[in-house]
Specification:
Shape: globular
Bound molecules: 1,4-dihydronicotinamide adenine dinucleotide
Strand content: 5-15%
CATH class: Alpha Beta
Number of domains: 1
Distance between the termini: 29 Å
Radius of gyration: 19 Å
CATH topology: Rossmann fold
Oligomer: single chain
Strand order of the largest sheet: 3-2-1-4-5-6-7
């Protein structure tokens, strides 16, 4: 794919793992200059080494996205090192599992600090630099949990609803000053966040309900984020794009469901299953 990002500076938060790392690798392959932003110094250095091995120009920035001074300092450092930042992908995020009645205030705040405040601080700091040049594009990684909630993830889902609201607000405010803001809302993605935080049984249940019959690979999300940075989407602004293999499109299950299950449909000869 040619996303038209060659020699453009793109910053990726959460770039040391999962979706963020896949985005960094894709951008590097496209010839973009990649700024990897993460609070995990070891995996950050590892990512930068991988990108450089690919022949890319890349640097790592040790940043906690929930800290205002970290974020503003990082914009300055990146622009000093590489010049104007054209693109930003906001992928840093965390989750906490708890039933709402047991959810600790600290955990609610922790999730909001990274997912919602962190996204805002990064969009504000990078966005201000882009606005001053009237050129830039931002993609925030939201979630289908910001469209319909998931039990046991109250803080996470609420923070993703906030993030989706942030994207629409910024899109409305900045579009006529040359900066587009959009969102990719993944279903389940095979990353460390998922594998450490989600029981395998739940993943199986989601696969069962996903028309494409699998969860996403990080690259499935990265490519849509890159597309939203590219000039191919020049008139796309303020959208939340679910990338979920069709999960939100259909209430049917593929194998294990009851009344709405695909087994019923199969028995009725309505469609065939792989
Ligand atoms: P991940 O855990 O593999 O990567 C997240 C990265 O963010 C890590 O490298 C971590 O060190 C970094 N990070 C966390 N807090 C930070 C902070 N305060 N400052 C700087 N860096 C920080 O997770 P994954 O799955 O790649 O998630 C990326 C984004 O995608 C998140 O916003 C997540 O909510 C979202 N998402 C993930 C889904 C999944 O199933 N994996 C589904 C839907 C959305």
């Amino acid at each position: 794919m040619n996303y038209g990002l060659k020699d453009k500076v793109v910053a990726v938060t959460g770039g040391a793992s999962g979706i963020g790392r896949a985005a960094c690798e894709l951008l590097a392959g496209e010839g973009a200059i990649v700024a990897v932003i993460d609070r995990d110094p070891v995996r950050n250095a590892e990512t930068v080494a991988r990108l450089r091995q690919q022949g890319a120009v890349a640097s790592g920035y040790h940043v906690d996205v929930s800290q205002e001074t970290d974020v503003s300092g990082c914009v300055t450092s990146i622009e000093q090192e590489f010049g104007p930042v054209y693109g930003l992908i906001v992928a840093a995020g965390i989750s906490v599992a708890a039933l709402a009645e047991d959810l600790k205030t600290d955990d609610w705040e922790r999730v909001f600090k990274v997912n919602a405040l962190g996204a805002f601080l990064c969009c504000r700091a990078f966005g201000a630099a882009m606005l001053s040049r009237r050129a830039g594009a931002i993609v925030v990684i939201g979630s289908i949990d910001g469209i319909g909630a998931q039990p046991g993830r109250t803080a996470y889902a609420s923070s993703k609803f906030a993030v989706h609201g942030l994207v629409k607000s910024l899109a409305a405010e900045w579009a006529n000053r040359g900066v587009r803001v959009n969102c990719v809302a993944p279903g389940l993605v095979d990353t460390p966040l998922l594998r450490t935080g989600m029981p395998a049984r739940f993943v199986d249940a989601v696969v069962d309900r996903t028309p494409m019959g699998r969860i996403a690979r990080p690259e499935d999300i990265a490519s849509v984020a890159a597309m939203l940075l590219s000039s191919a989407t020049n008139f796309v602004n303020g959208v939340i794009i679910p990338v979920d293999g069709g999960l939100l499109a259909s209430p049917f299950t593929r194998k294990n469901g009851a009344d709405l299950s695909s087994n019923r449909l199969l028995e009725a000869g309505i469609y065939t299953e792989d």
